[in-house]
Amino acid sequence: xxxxxxxxxxxxxxxxxxxxxxxxxxxxxxxxxxxxxxxxxxxxxxxxxxxxxxxxxxxxxxxxxxxxxxxxxxxxxxxxxxxxxxxxxxxxxxxxxxxxxxxxxxxxxxxxxxxxxxxxxxxxxxxxxxxxxxxxxxxxxxxxxxxxxxxxxxxxxxxxxxxxxxxxxxxxxxxxxxxxxxxxxxxxxxxxxxxxxxxxxxxxxxxxxxxxxxxxxxxxxxxxxxxxxxxxxxxxxxxxxxxxxxxxxxxxxxxxxxxxxxxxxxxxxxxxxxxxxxxxxxxxxxxxxxxxxxxxxxxxxxxxxxxxxxxxxxxxxxxxxxxxxxxxxxxxxxxxxxxxxxxxxxxxxxxxxxxxxxxxxxxxxxxxxxxxxxxxxx
Length: 378
Fold this sequence. Notes:
- The structure is a single chain.
- This protein is of the alpha/beta class and 378 residues long.
- The chain folds into two domains: 2-169 and 355-371, Rossmann fold, CATH 3.40.50.2000; 173-352, Rossmann fold, CATH 3.40.50.2000.
- It has 16 helices and 13 strands.
- A six-stranded parallel β-sheet has the order 10-9-8-11-12-13, with helices on both faces. Strands 1-4-5-6-7 form a five-stranded parallel β-sheet, with helices on both faces. Strands 2-3 form a two-stranded parallel ribbon.
- α12 links the parallel β11 and β12.
- α1 packs parallel to α2 (37-44).
């Protein structure tokens, strides 16, 4: 598997897929930058990890070096399938495999590109043109949500027959364990008897955390003891903290930083709030669902494929702090509804978003593309 510099959802996806395939008796090699979280995690998990100098954005000087390194790695292999995660890794992988292997090439798209405000118009045009030019080398595209699939087919103009949706999957076990709510709150410095909302996410524009902060003054007018927990880190760390100060809510926000045990953080919450501006699918939404938490999420991207509005959670318009505040307060004020939504969310998470289901469906794609080759099998 070729993986671009990754964190969060992509890292968990790749590790879960690789370990699942190994458990089924298949050999897997993970190729990623040596200084990346995914490389370190793969080694720590006992997987075979190969270092390649792959960078995130398109880079005319560094990308050829990554192509050469990956070409050497693939040439030494005898791989049945080469699977790239992320469109950038897909680009480098295709250039590397063009003359070095006859193994089918697969690309999983984990994130929206064309919908992101932080991606320039020129960059979107380049990604679209490059993807179209090299699409013939891809045996299958895997989209982690129907929303991503639509972008690939309608936005990039890719063949619908070669794009399949396979939802991300998680191991629900840690989220099914009954945890000590008081201990989880004590670790965050939060009292037992106050309402707590929040999430864990990367501090980036697409996660919309500024909208949650903007909603806090309204929430606290109705629930003056309310605390927000915002776990994670990222490029907007300082900006978000400054916003909290400007809104005079910094004393009511907890910033635990990187969250190693997400299930522990979720145990401290009354409502999980996802204010994302764009969302491919939402690993955090799946985890919160498995934890049976009431969820308020924005109606963007693949979020609605995890949160069924009115059945497993509540959806609100994006970039609308007032709607976010109103709906969150409504759930806090109706614990019975919250329990009903949370139970339905958990039941759906452990079936639709099970890691075994994701692994089996991905293996099915491998078997299909290999079978299309004369004498192929995997």
